[in-house]
């Protein structure tokens, strides 16, 4: 019996169905026309074979334009159509390598050089039948009009890629006296049917066993995804960021950064190794898929879909968010492939180092650092006051006195001829300021400075003139230009001296 069947390719089903319909019509017509003849010995009807069609196969076989295409080293089940099909019909079927039109009128070269023109076995194709297609001694009958036989196809010769064979039918009715038809002068006759040609093609040889190729393809897809993800994840971690993480990250992040930093410091070498590995893996994957699919177009489509989804999109989406963790956990594989690709990737990386210079990493100036704090404000744990202090400190060298000063019209001031009575003292206390400018005449004419603490021993009932207090303390006024930088003003504020006492709690 034949091994489990392999489905006929869909694109050949239409042709196969047409052949089956044609064969059925031909069989019906022939049954009406065939008349009983004398048998070989007992006077029974002669077996007449009309045609063949593919029934089942253990390999890739199909009907192509009426011809049967089979692979070498395969077993094929054929349905034989005709009249008076019986249990001995399998023995009346054979195949020849010689086509009818190539031997008529001459001697078949494959029959030998010593055969004469009178040797009719050398004049027709069925004189020498091939042993490349073996008819197995078994047939499954169906009402004497059809039966299923099984053939075994032998391997082709090393120099052959395909070979055609033609059907020969055994007959027990020899030609009558004086007959001149060379095709009936032997018990084997050449069948002229259009669907009786068998083409044996070379067996498709895989580079590796199918199951092993599936394993390799799965592994290559994983490696492709790893190379692609690490290329994005590791190269996005510049040396400066790794140093920052090592100094102020969590314990887990510090451990990850310490593992990655030695490899990431060789940026161009790491880049060349990852890219070379990725290209090598993707190319090998396409070759294996082409070997399985048997079609370059199908292999390109399959490899494109697989590489885009599993080799690019998924790993890069993961590594763009968790590059530090993925890079640290796969650092041994990264070092292995860097060592494996050393002969090709290291010289190229040194050339890039020479041409592009040392990789420093991302460096933030004052403006970029301040903007980064503003942009990341919704995601960090800084409160508004801390952010304002950091912003003010970063802008200290760029801002001037005019940018931060309070306009004169908005300042709380007191006239130099004022009297420190109850109303004036209440107004000073309610203002909330500790230092109050004193002017004479015009508000822009500031002549003195009043400290609120100077009023500690002043009695409002005494109605002391303000000039008495200001002349007694005589605080110095510091005048600066409006374009003075704030860092210079900060140095001015540092010139005063302060005495520090140890607190009782310490």
Automatic annotation (TrEMBL):
BP terms from Gene Ontology: magnesium ion homeostasis
NAD listed as a keyword: no
Entry's Gene Ontology molecular function annotations: magnesium ion transmembrane transporter activity
Topological type in the membrane: Multi-pass membrane protein
UniProt xrefs under Pfam families: CNNM, Ig_CNNM4_N
Residues annotated as transmembrane: 210-234, 268-289, 295-314, 326-346
SUPFAM superfamilies: CBS-domain pair
A GO cellular-component term linked to this record: plasma membrane
Residue ranges of every copy of the CNNM transmembrane domain listed in the record: 206-386
Subcellular localization(s) per the UniProt record: Cell membrane
Gene3D superfamilies per UniProt: CBS-domain (3.10.580.10)
Signal peptide residues on this chain, from the entry's feature table: 1-39
Keyword Transmembrane: yes
Main localization of the protein described in the UniProt heading: membrane
PANTHER family, per the entry: METAL TRANSPORTER CNNM (PTHR12064), METAL TRANSPORTER CNNM2 (PTHR12064:SF22)
Family note: Belongs to the ACDP family.
Protein's job: Metal transporter.
Protein name: Metal transporter
Record organism: Danionella cerebrum
């Amino acid at each position: 019996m034949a091994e489990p069947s392999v489905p006929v390719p869909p694109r050949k089903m239409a042709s196969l169905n047409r052949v089956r319909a044609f064969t059925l019509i031909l069989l019906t017509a022939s049954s009406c026309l065939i008349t009983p003849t004398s048998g070989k010995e007992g006077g029974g009807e002669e077996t007449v074979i009309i045609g063949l069609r593919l029934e089942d196969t253990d390999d890739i076989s199909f009907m192509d334009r009426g011809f049967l295409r089979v692979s070498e080293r395969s077993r094929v089940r054929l349905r034989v159509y005709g009249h008076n099909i019986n249990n001995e019909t399998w023995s009346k079927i054979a195949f020849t390598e010689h086509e009818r039109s190539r031997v008529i009128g001459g001697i078949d070269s494959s029959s030998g050089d010593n055969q004469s023109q009178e040797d009719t076995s050398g004049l027709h194709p069925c004189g020498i039948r091939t042993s490349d297609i073996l008819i197995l001694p078994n047939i499954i009958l169906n009402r004497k009009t059809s039966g299923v036989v099984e053939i075994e196809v032998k391997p082709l010769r090393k120099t052959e890629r395909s070979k055609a064979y033609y059907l020969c039918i055994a007959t027990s009715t020899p030609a009558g006296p004086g007959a001149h038809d060379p095709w009936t002068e032997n018990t084997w006759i050449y069948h002229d049917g259009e669907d009786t040609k068998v083409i044996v093609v070379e067996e498709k040889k895989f580079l590796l066993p199918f199951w092993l190729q599936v394993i390799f393809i799965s592994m290559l897809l994983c490696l492709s995804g790893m190379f692609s993800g690490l290329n994005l994840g590791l190269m996005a971690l510049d040396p400066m960021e790794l140093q920052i993480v090592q100094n102020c990250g969590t314990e887990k992040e510090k451990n990850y950064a310490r593992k990655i930093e030695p490899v990431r410091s060789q940026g161009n070498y790491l880049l060349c190794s990852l890219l070379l590995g990725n290209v090598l893996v993707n190319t090998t994957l396409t070759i294996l898929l082409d070997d399985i699919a048997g079609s370059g177009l199908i292999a390109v489509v399959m490899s494109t879909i697989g590489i885009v989804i599993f080799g690019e999109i998924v790993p890069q989406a993961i590594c763009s968010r968790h590059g530090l963790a993925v890079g640290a956990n796969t650092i041994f594989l990264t070092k292995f492939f860097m060592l494996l690709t050393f002969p090709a990737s290291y010289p190229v990386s040194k050339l890039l180092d020479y041409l592009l210079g040392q990789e420093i990493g991302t460096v933030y100036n004052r403006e970029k650092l301040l903007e980064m704090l503003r942009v990341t404000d919704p995601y960090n744990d800084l409160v508004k006051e801390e952010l304002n202090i950091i912003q003010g400190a970063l802008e200290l060298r760029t801002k001037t006195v005019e940018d931060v000063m309070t306009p004169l019209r908005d300042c709380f001031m007191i006239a130099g001829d004022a009297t420190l009575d109850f109303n004036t003292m209440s107004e000073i206390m309610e203002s909330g300021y500790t230092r109050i400018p004193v002017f004479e005449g015009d508000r822009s004419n500031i002549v003195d400075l009043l400290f609120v603490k100077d009023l500690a021993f002043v009695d409002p009932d005494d109605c002391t003139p303000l000039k008495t207090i200001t002349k007694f303390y005589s605080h110095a006024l510091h005048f600066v230009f409006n374009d003075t930088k704030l860092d210079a003003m900060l140095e001015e504020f540092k010139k005063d001296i302060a005495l520090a006492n140890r607190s009782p709690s310490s």
